[in-house]
């Protein structure tokens, strides 16, 4: 099988428990909760997406076979063999991730993390599972390493999610583009954590740092 890839780049993980960690990001084309077209945003299940995942025209984008994709990820990481870390994201990566890719990345010495909306069960051999639920979708992947809820989302119920089997619970303020609204979301998320100590605040550090 081949994979449709939007872009691949070396950066720091900006979000969540592993924020600050050097990582290759492998962004797949396509999502099951939005077409990625602006004219469809208002009617999509997920309406706040901050990412362009349409097409294969980004940095190192294209159609890849598993071995070639793992080799590209390795070349972007560089020489060092220690602490190799790749983040599978999108779009929705679980539309494409399969045994062949997971095995090829592991064979190249990578620890594999995923950012998924949880509507498709994640691959069992992925090393770090981060699920970010979207209100109005059916989350089937209710266990993992990190639950990262974007805040606020009308109709999302953190009290129920707290019963799911995750090692870490995080709240991430929604980026709406507008400064005052973003500020209000940071304040709201901070206030939530102060009232719910099981949850931690996740900020999008890469945006603060000007990294991809
Ligand atoms: C672009 S998504 C791709 C992976 C997967 N489709 C998902 O939603 O988890 C990567 C992460 O960015 C988060 N995200 C997307 N748009 C955001 C926004 N406007 N503000 C804050 N986080 C956002 C998602 O919730 C998810 O945790
Ligand atoms: N630096 C950086 N960290 C991230 N963490 C999750 C991201 C994503 O879009 O999945 C992301 C991203 O796009 N860039
Ligand atoms: S599920 Fe993820 S990739 Fe899809 S539209 Fe929502 S945030 Fe974007
Ligand atoms: Mg992003």
UniProtKB/TrEMBL annotation:
User: Cofactor note from UniProt?
Assistant: Binds 1 [4Fe-4S] cluster. The cluster is coordinated with 3 cysteines and an exchangeable S-adenosyl-L-methionine.
Q: Which InterPro entries match?
A: 7-CO-7-deazaguanine_synth-like (IPR024924), Aldolase_TIM (IPR013785), QueE_Cx14CxxC (IPR030977), rSAM (IPR007197), rSAM_sf (IPR058240)
Which pathway or pathways does this protein act in? Purine metabolism; 7-cyano-7-deazaguanine biosynthesis
Enzyme class, first EC level, given as a word: lyase
The entry's keywords = 4Fe-4S, Iron, Iron-sulfur, Lyase, Magnesium, Metal-binding, Queuosine biosynthesis, S-adenosyl-L-methionine
Q: Which annotated residues bind substrate? A: 12-14, 27, 89, 212
Q: Which cofactor does it need?
A: [4Fe-4S] cluster; Mg(2+); S-adenosyl-L-methionine
Please list the residues that bind S-adenosyl-L-methionine: 48-50, 91, 132-134, 172-175
Which GO MF terms does the UniProt record name? 4 iron, 4 sulfur cluster binding; carbon-nitrogen lyase activity; magnesium ion binding; S-adenosyl-L-methionine binding
- Mention one GO biological process in which this protein takes part, according to its record: tRNA queuosine(34) biosynthetic process
Q: Which residues bind Mg(2+)?
A: 51
List, for all copies, the residue spans of the domain called Radical SAM core: 18-212
This enzyme's EC code(s): 4.3.99.3
Please give the superkingdom of this protein's source.
Bacteria
Residue sites binding [4Fe-4S] cluster per the record:
31, 46, 49
According to its UniProt entry, the function of this protein is described as: Catalyzes the complex heterocyclic radical-mediated conversion of 6-carboxy-5,6,7,8-tetrahydropterin (CPH4) to 7-carboxy-7-deazaguanine (CDG), a step common to the biosynthetic pathways of all 7-deazapurine-containing compounds.
UniProt-listed NCBIfam families? queE_Cx14CxxC
> HAMAP family, alphabetically?
QueE
Q: Which PANTHER family match?
A: 7-CARBOXY-7-DEAZAGUANINE SYNTHASE
- The name this protein goes by in its record: 7-carboxy-7-deazaguanine synthase
Q: Gene that codes for this? A: queE
């Amino acid at each position: 099988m081949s994979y449709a890839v939007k872009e691949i780049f070396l950066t720091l993980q900006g979000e969540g428990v592993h924020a600050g960690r050097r990582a290759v990001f492998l962004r797949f084309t396509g999502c099951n909760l939005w077409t990625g077209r602006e004219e469809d945003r208002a009617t999509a299940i997920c309406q706040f997406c901050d990412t362009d995942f349409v097409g294969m025209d980004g940095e190192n984008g294209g159609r890849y076979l598993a071995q070639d994709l793992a080799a590209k990820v390795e070349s972007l990481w560089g020489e060092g063999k220690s602490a190799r870390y790749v983040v599978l994201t999108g779009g929705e990566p679980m539309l494409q991730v399969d045994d062949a890719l997971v095995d090829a990345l592991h064979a190249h010495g990578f620890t594999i993390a995923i950012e998924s909306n949880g509507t498709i069960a994640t691959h069992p051999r992925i090393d770090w599972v981060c699920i970010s639920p979207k209100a109005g979708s059916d989350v089937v992947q209710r266990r993992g390493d990190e639950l990262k809820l974007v805040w606020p989302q009308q109709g999302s119920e953190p009290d129920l999610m707290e019963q799911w089997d995750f090692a870490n619970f995080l709240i991430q303020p929604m980026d709406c583009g507008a400064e005052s609204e973003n500020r209000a979301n940071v304040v709201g998320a901070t206030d939530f954590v102060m009232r719910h100590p099981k949850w931690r605040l996740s900020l999008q550090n890469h945006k603060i740092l000007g990294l991809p």
